[in-house]
Amino acid sequence: MPSSGRKLVPSGLVALSCRIFVAAVAAWVLLPIEVSKAGWLSNVFEGSSKHGKSHARIASSKHAASSKRAAAAKHTASPKARSIKLAALGPTDLSPSALSSGCDPAKFRIVVDVGHTAESEGAISSRNVPEFTFNLRLARRIEEKLKAEGFTETRLLLTEGKAKPSLAKRVAVANNLHANLFLSIHHDSVPNSLLENWEFDGKKSHFSDRFSGYSIFVSRNNPEFKTSLSFAELVGKEMKAQGLPYAQQYTMAIMGRYQHPLLDKETGVYSYDKLIVLKSTRMPAVLLEAGSIINRDEELKMNSPERRDVVSNAVAAAAKEFCGPQDVFLGPL
To answer: Does residue 174 belong to any structural domain of this protein?
Structure first.
């Protein structure tokens, strides 16, 4: 065929140049990432045209064909799984729900919801103390602890009104605040059919010493269910690390309409799919039943500052782990 006037480059040389280019980029990625150079990798993820030009220069460099680079390419090409800390990626604006990544605690807004209201106080303890009283004290302690740990945008949500209307109010406030996480604080009881009678301070009351422990709930209907479950499991893990057992009765038929599927048997996370504050919030949402106040012994513990510190420490530790650097799997190179 007639010549086109173009000079053909041997295909073997093109293939070698491609392999050297890939190896050079791989070697660059696997170098230890210093904080001062952290922005580079985030720009790679963003497809920065600036670095795209530098890559082109690397590919066209005469030194890329040296035998020393070729040897490095052969060594780097072995398939090894690598991981890096997302904290090294520099500022990214990616939400934890989008990429199981870290976040900036100072900008991460947690709404700590005080369960029930002064008008609808929730369960009554074995010593005739309203659940709302327990919820408010613990929620305030959790708020204080989270702020002390750097979550300065934490908001305490205290709602007024009757029970059902207050649920919609909580959701609206959390959504309008553009919260990153919703945590509702409660204390547990049991169905009326399981209650026993006793008298405390000359007043009739009810108790059930049969069950105790914390429990955690998420909704599979929440748009951020996976992230909700992730945080719930971290809270459960920290509660367990503090030596606290979780309540196991929610899988039992005797719980009636309060029976719920157990999602994590290690940390005590259950699904409560139809609960408004869990399913209707536009951010990850978790409900914590911190312990049983209908159990006479556990009520005394839940009423103590020491137990409030234990629970608030567990929540704060879970938030720090949730918001901290996470390993990202880069896969074989």
So the answer is: yes
**Which string of DSSP letters, residue by residue, matches 116-166?**
S-SSS---B-TTS-BHHHHHHHHHHHHHHHHHHTT-TT-EEE---S-HHHH
Whole-prediction pTM value?
Answer: 0.70
Q: Could you tell me if residue 3 is inside a domain?
A: no
CB atoms within 10 A of CB 259: 14
Q: Encode pLDDT of 207-245 as tens digits.
A: 999 999 999 999 999 999 999 999 999 999 999 999 999
Residue after which a domain boundary falls, among 43, 78, 113: 78
User: Do 57 and 101 lie in a common domain?
Assistant: no
Candidates 216, 214, 212, 213; CA nearest to 269 is 216
Q: Which domain holds residue 316?
A: 96-323
DSSP character at residue 9: P
Cβ neighbours of residue 172 under 8 Å, at least 6 residues apart?
A: none
Q: Phi-psi region for residue 109, left (φ > 0), alpha (ψ -120 to 50) or beta?
A: beta
CA distance 123 to 234: 26
Query: pLDDT band for position 177 (50/70/90)?
Result: very high
In a domain, 2, yes or no: no
Q: Which residue carries 């704060």 as its tokens?
A: 316
Q: 298-317: per-residue pLDDT in tens?
A: 999 999 999 999 999 999 99
DSSP assignment of 295-323: SHHHHHHHTSHHHHHHHHHHHHHHHHHHH
Please report whether residue 105 resides in a domain.
yes
Residues 248 and 200 in one domain: yes
